[in-house]
Each structure stands twice: as structure tokens, then as C-alpha cells.
Amino acid sequence: MSRIGKVPVVIPTGVTVQIDDGNMTVSGKKGKLSRRVPAHVAVSVTGDRAVVSVDSEGRGNLYGMYRTLLANMVKGVTDGFTKTLEIVGVGYKAEAKKGALQLSLGYSHPVVFPLPEGISAEVETNTVIKVAGIDKELVGETAARIRALRKPDVYKLKGVRYRGERLVKKVGKAAGK
Fold it and tell me: Which among 143, 129, 131, 127 is positioned nearest to 87, based on CA atoms?
């Protein structure tokens, strides 16, 4: 039995959780999210709490995950999620265009990264990008795809990295005798 799955999800005021035909829909001030729920996982809403449980056949290996997914959906429609990326390197920069990011990452051409539906990107300085949205998975995936355009180099410590990501610089090739 999952200890996380047993804890009820607190639903703040202004957020509604609806369960119908295997779909769980959460709507709030920032938007609306929906997710399919397997047949053996049951979600019940009573007042300002939602409880995730499983059927009696003992297939309880997913309800902790679905409880966490529901909690992330509730947090997303109330507060939203952000990931901050930093660009390190001489001449590396980012620009926000309508529905896309234009990145100069040391290639011979600028890289245009189209943003998925429901994701916004704000360029604070020309080397700091904030990716925001209500879907935690989509925010994380988009940030990872931007980071993959120029992964951090452990020899020169340049590239796109998450804020707070620590890189350990590797020693280059030793000079011959």
C-alpha cells in the first residue's frame, strides 16, 4: 500500500474536480486539465478533499502515482508551474517571438523553437528563460527539449542548463611530454 496514495488531496476554493467515465477533469482560475484514469483506480470527491483508491483485486501499484498526478493538476490550475533555464556561453542568447523562442547557441544559424499549446516562455535577460504553464509534465518536457538544443558542456561549462544545476568541470586532455 502506498503511503502517498492514502493522503487525501486538498481542493482549494475556486477549483472543481469532476470524475466521469474514467476521466478526471480539474478546472480553476488558470485553466482546465484532464487526464484518463484506469478502471481499477477510483477517485472520490467529498467537499474540499479528493481521495484516490483502488479496487479490491490488489492492483494497487498505481494509485499513489494517480494521487500525485491529481495533486499536480490541482496545483497547476491554481498556481501553475515554472522552470528556469540559463544560457551560458559567449554570444549565446534567447529572444521571445510570438509562440516561439529564437535561440543563438553557437550554430551557424539561429534555432527557432516553437512552443507547444499551453506553454509560455519569458526571456528575463537575454540569457535567462522562464518556461511556464499549468501542466507540470508539459512544462518539464518543454524545458528539457530546450536544454537538449545545446546540452551543458562539462569541459567548457557552456550551454543551456537549469537554474541551480551544478556542473563539475572535467579536466581536458593532458599535454604530451
Answer: 127
